[in-house]
Amino acid sequence: MEPILLIHGYGSEDGTTTTRDSAAKIYAGLPAWLRKEYGPRSVFELDLARYVSLEDGISLDDISRAMDRALRNEYPKLMNGSFHVIIHSTGALVVRNWIRRFAGASQPIRNLIYLAGANFGSGWAHIGRNRLARWGREAFTGSESGVRVLEALELGSSETLDLHLHFLEPGQTMLERGVREFAIIGSQANARWFEFPIPYAKEDGSDGVVRVPASNLNFSYAHYQVNAAGAKVTPRQVQRDRSARHLPATADYYARSEGSIPGADGREKIPFAIPYNTAHSGNELGIVDGSKNRDEIQPLIKMALDTRNVAQWRSRRQSFDAATAATLEKARGASLGGLFGDIKGWTRQAQYDAHSQIIVRLFDQDGRPITDYDIYFGRAPGAKGSKDVADLIVDTHRNGKSNNVHTFFLRVREWNPTTKIWDDQLDDIDGAILEISGNEPQTDDIQYVPFRLQLDQGALRKWIIPHTTTVVDIEMHRLPSPDVFRIFSH
């Protein structure tokens, strides 16, 4: 068995202590189980990472750079051979950033297992710089909140989006680099976290810290640019289009210039599973250290670690899908107990409602962020469905640093207590429109060509996929008025 490196998440370090024993405490019983499963040190080596995340001056790049130095200077045998990595939470960003920026063409990671990887961030990071900073001193034993790490962790972080989009580029995919990825996350919040006055601690479709679709790396991507009609539109026409309550159907000014969907055009799907009775952390239900869900977590980890080639890796998708299906069957018949029983209107099944994320990022044609805008999801003209996309949205978030990024969290499948099944909410939506109007607050001589996209139900299902995220980059055309530059004959 090749060596295994464990990498923890945000706030998991034991204060300022850097001993081997303090590092071991971070991972609870996981190291002991791995040793028992794979034998003594003469056969298998286990290495425990410990990094600093709670100091405000330390960034994600700093941590990845320090990881590179530790591997090359202190553990060259790992770099010179091959090894596996198990991460928790923010460790996903640390290792992916290391692979992107520092590992090089001969990077040595083979199986990379994400346990509740915070790949598309966490709502907790948004509050981390204020309320969490106050509570975190007790919860995370740090005197600072780790502002720069939290910026990378916030929902809709442009830094993080660019990190993941890098691995969609030809020649840069994880599989081309020799990495076989596996993603595992629970969908059940820890009851004790319900005491926090934070909605993200008790969201359905989340493990109490990371949303299920935010952990799943099987995300879709679309990039839109102005089309021929949009390139010719005049400022006067833009004013007419925007004068109505909604953009007219003739405002068809953009087209998709590139995109990527898992399972299409040669892009491989990553094995992804939702184990039952699993939260982000905690000594009972935690994905790393929970005592009551080892039968759910350990078989998935072992299956991933024992994968030896791409053909085997592909076959794991079916096994991971089966684990998720088994979870839903268990959740279907579950009843509440303990602290959950006192929460009015809440059911165990609701936490397993399938959700989706849509992340919209706005730039102009020069690559500058558009931070003053209006965005609207609505019903398509003539649609006969009983619902529209707005009815599915349970949370919206505008990134605090990347002000041009808006994240929508949607409930896609909802538990029906009468029929005892999860109803597909998209069945009730007969098409939708997305409208975006950009604004330049400092002058009236600049307008943005408005964005309008109409989706029928088939197209909508490509945008809104259960348990996944869709990232949409829109390059809005910045249009100067004729007065910005004139030429006169003389």
Give an overview in words.
The chain has 490 residues and is an alpha/beta fold. The protein has two domains: 292 residues, 3-Layer(aba) Sandwich (Rossmann fold), CATH 3.40.50.1820; 174 residues, no CATH class. The protein is built from 16 helices and 19 strands. The strands form five sheets. It has a six-stranded parallel sheet, sandwiched between helices. Helix 13 packs antiparallel against helix 14. The N and C termini lie far apart (83 Å).
The gist of it:
With 490 residues, the protein is of the alpha/beta class. It has helices spanning 20-26, 30-38, 60-74, 76-80, 91-101, 123-127, 131-139, 147-153, 158-166, 212-215, 228-232, 235-243, 294-305, 310-332, 389-392, 457-463; strands at 4-7, 46-48, 83-88, 109-115, 180-184, 220-226, 254-260, 272-273, 355-364, 373-379, 393-398, 405-411, 413-416, 421-424, 432-438, 446-448, 451-455, 469-476, 478-480. The relative contact order is 0.12.
Question: How many strand elements?
Answer: 19
- In round numbers, the mean pLDDT is 88
Distance between the termini: 83 Å
Share in helix: 25-40%
Number of helices: 16
CATH topology of the largest domain: Rossmann fold
Architecture of the largest domain, CATH level 2?
3-Layer(aba) Sandwich
User: Strand content of the residues, in percent?
Assistant: 15-25%
Low-confidence stretches: 132-142
Instruction: Give the CATH superfamily of the largest domain.
Output: Alpha/Beta hydrolase fold, catalytic domain
CATH class of the largest domain reads Alpha Beta
